[in-house]
Target: Histidine ammonia-lyase
Amino acid sequence: MDVVRLGIGPLTPAEVVAVARDGVRVEVTDECLDAVGATRRHVEALAAAERPVYGVSTGFGALATKHIPVERRAQLQLSLIRSHAAGSGPEVEREVVRALMLLRLSTLCTARTGVRPIVVQTYAAALNAGITPIVREYGSLGCSGDLAPLAHCALALLGEGEVRDASGAVRPAGEALAAAGIDPLTLAEKEGLALINGTDGMLGMLVLACHDFGRLLTASDVVAAMSVEALLGTDHVLAPDLVGMRPQPGQQAAAANMRLALADSPIVASHRDDPHCPIVQDAYSLRCAPQVAGAGRDTLDHARRIAGHELASAIDNPVVTPDGRVESNGNFHGAPVGYVLDFLAIAAADLASISERRTDRMLDVKRSNGLPPFLADDPGVDSGHMILQYTQAGIVAELKRLAAPASVDSIPSSAMQEDHVSLGWHAGRKLRRSLDGLARVLACEALSAARSIDLRGLGSAPATAAVVAALREGVAGPGPDRFLSPEIEATVEFVKSGRLVAAAERVTGPLA
Model:
């Protein structure tokens, strides 16, 4: 993808990821700029009229009853941005800020916000120049828009505040704009409000999370298949006729992935028809792997639908209708986005929980079906992967806390004018931590499963063997205890980068 064009329809999730993470350029169509200009003329007509219009000739929030004279309206917009750029805390990740900026720009391009074309052009130019405003962790309640995060971005367009330039260096915004050949904006009526009134921050985090969670779900199926081999489990429970008795689509996809990953596995076949095998049925963490991962997939599908609807939205307050009315509305409320951000955190926590249980079985000599205690080379002298499971357990405990929903909370603001808020931004922030934790838990399971397969010495399925071989390029096999943390981090990168799934897919073909 070389360029993302705005003004020809809703953005796709892939386009958001490309601009946010890969720095793909944006291009605003001439048709879009013409439509934006036409809408702006309605705002200018209303600004000249006697009747007060919210956001054009009045104050904001609880101050909406105060009429602002014509000569003070430019100051009104500037004051709005300066006062609302009130974030605090750690700096938000560059990819989140770029996603937020792209989504606000996309809404401006709907021609429903009433800004001038120069606002659209300046926003696009800053994004293309790699100028990333410094946005702080706290400041959004997920209602009336992601106010503080968006205000920090708007402030940078005015040449104020701090940004990171394309090289990542922190610079004054005015200096960075000048270096990029961009003139700072001077805001006119309604434009300050249009720059900060949207769900862009929480939506950007949702789109990125959907992309990441989808990749981790596929990885979890491959890793679960490795654990089935590691624990001398069976693939009988993955049979299409059995999983088909419960037609949950996510479950079908997860089971199909596991079947492909386990195809032609000598380690599974070694005890499949053994009448003396003492294992009557596998533990839930193996037997129910596709059910749990499948529920995560179905949750993700729902989240993707909500994200798609939001990407097609024009969110501002007030909004300029096609017939020229400027109307207040409540579309900025983040409840739809906040709910699914919280829902995904629940799914991520449960997927990590079942992964940790499989790892624990591999390490327990009473439940591992013949593996050495803790997969140690010389148990007693060596501790093997004992503390790796502690790391997993600590992460899973954290993910369970992060699964507590943010969207059920609300703290009134603006002198009770804004008396119910979504806290969707908070849901997005904790989901990002949840998905990072899930990747780490899956990496630990993959590390233990690979060691278990090696220790069995019975061979493994072509797909899982390919995964173990790819992992062994950066992480050594079984042996005496060694510094384990670097191996865990290398495996985390192996999972997050997609290389684990890619290794399996070289054998299986594309996995769901």
User: Anything to note?
Assistant: The mean pLDDT is 95. The longest helix spans residues 424-456. The chain has two domains: 3-198, 205-508.
